[in-house]
Amino acid sequence: MTQLSTAAIAKAAVAPLEPRPSAMRISVRMRLANLIAVVIPSLGLVAAIVLLWGRGFGWIELGLLVGMYLLTGLGITVGFHRLFTHRAFETNRVVEFVLAALGSMALEGPLLRWVATHRCHHQHSDKDGDPHSPHFEGSGFLGLLRGAWHAHMGWIFKPDTPKLAHYVKDLLQDGPIRVASALFPLWVAIGLLLPAVVGGLLSGSWMGAVCGFLCGGLARIFLVHHLTWSINSVCHLWGQRPFDNDDQSRNNTLFGILTLGEGWHNNHHAFPSSARYGLRWWQFDAGYLCICILARIGLAWNVKVPRQMTALAN
User: Fold this and answer.
1) Is 251 helix (H, G, I), strand (E, B) or coil?
2) Structural domain boundaries of the chain?
3) What DSSP assignment string belongs to 76-131?
4) Nearest to 70, CA basis, from 107, 103, 112
5) What are the angstrom distances between the C-alpha of 211 and each of 40, 145, 292?
6) In contact, 89 and 304? CB cutoff 8 Å
């Protein structure tokens, strides 16, 4: 790879995080892109329901939906969140690149932007500067609704936090990670085309490919989006607070299971650098289980967990 092409890729990876002089014009363009990223998966879900109505939801469609959800969901929780944001464990370059690609397929933004936003959230959790706290939209029932909407998805249509690149100075020095972030459009395309190809091959028909694209692609993105965003909204409004953190993060059993461990959010905010979010034996944490498997086969090491696990949440 030439020096010129490396510089171009690095610029593409960093540019979305840096302030722009034409903020209003860029903001409108980004809001439109975010709107498309939200609306198209929703339409894909509706299309899948209409297409399969009366025909039935077969094992191929179910397998692609669940399989792609698990792969991209683990890409978010194990890769984007526990590895890149909090450095809760270490791994090799190949696993890093795979996790970066899988997390990008969830269509939640490039790796660098995702990590920067989440680190900003932790620094200002439920205080001024938190990009998606639900607690600053007024009081009463209407304030609660406005706050839940803002935390769930309204925040993605608002301007970036100033100097967002400040939160990922370490990753900006890592060439391969910058490349993985810059390749975000490619990973998204693969995440949509892969289930279509698999669906077509397994069914032996173009209709199978279309159903694979809709179920394993668009409908899966819709599912991952709203379950991930529920951590920002639901898990800062409803649930248990075993740890008296300086914020309103909460554990929510339903989302702890559905989001592969992310819903044990109060635990996470108490020990943000821990690779384990489900601290009690009954708090199922699929993300941590995945990291344990990686560690067992020698692909993860220096896995961080709080000491005296059994006494932490008492």
Assistant:
1) strand
2) 3-311
3) IIIIIIIIIIT--SEE-HHHHHHHHHHHHTT-S--HHHHHHHHHHHHHTTTSTT-T
4) 103
5) 15, 35, 34
6) yes
Burial of 287 (0-12, 13-18, 19+ CB in 10 A): buried
Cβ atoms of 111 and 97 closer than 8 Å: no
Supply the pTM of this predicted model.
Answer: 0.90
Q: What is the DSSP letter of 54?
A: T
**Cβ pair 228, 258 in contact under 8 A:** no
Could you read off the pLDDT of 195-211 as tens digits, one per residue? 999 999 999 999 999 99
Query: What pLDDT, on a 0 to 100 scale, did the predictor assign at position 33?
Result: 86
* pLDDT tens, residue by residue, 66-119: 999 999 999 999 999 999 999 999 999 999 999 999 999 999 999 999 999 999
User: Which residue did the predictor score with more confidence, 314 or 88?
Assistant: 88
